[in-house]
Each structure stands twice: as structure tokens, then as C-alpha cells.
């Protein structure tokens, strides 16, 4: 780049090769239990497991 002469020169370089995307390395056990748990329809996963638990904690 010549600032005094206000001139910019572009030079070709060797063609770059495209990088191959790297796959994340996962442990061989990853996903081994897929499909083994089934949640019945209508189950509320946000409901407390034991609704009386709060009362038991207050007693102790």
C-alpha cells in the first residue's frame, strides 16, 4: 500500500484449501440409554414427587 501515491496493490497468493469441519469427539457410551425411558402421556414432570414433602420438612 502506497499512502503517498494513494495506491493499493493486490497480490494473488496460492489458492487456500477449504478447512474440513471437525466433528466433536463423543464418548462411546454417549447415547447408550437412548429410548430406554418412556414418560406416560399426561404425566406432569413439574409436579412435586411427594406433595406432602413440604409438611414433613416443616415438622422436623
| Beta strand count | 0
Unreliable spans: none
Name the helix and strand elements from N-terminus to C-terminus, one letter apiece. Answer: H
* Sheet of most strands: none
Textual characterization of the structure:
The chain is mostly loops. Helix content is 12%, strand content 0%. The radius of gyration is 32 Å and the shape is elongated.
Strand-helix topology:
Elements: H1 53-59
Short description:
The protein is 12% helix and 0% strand.
Label this structure with key terms.
single chain, little secondary structure, 1 helix, 0% strand, elongated
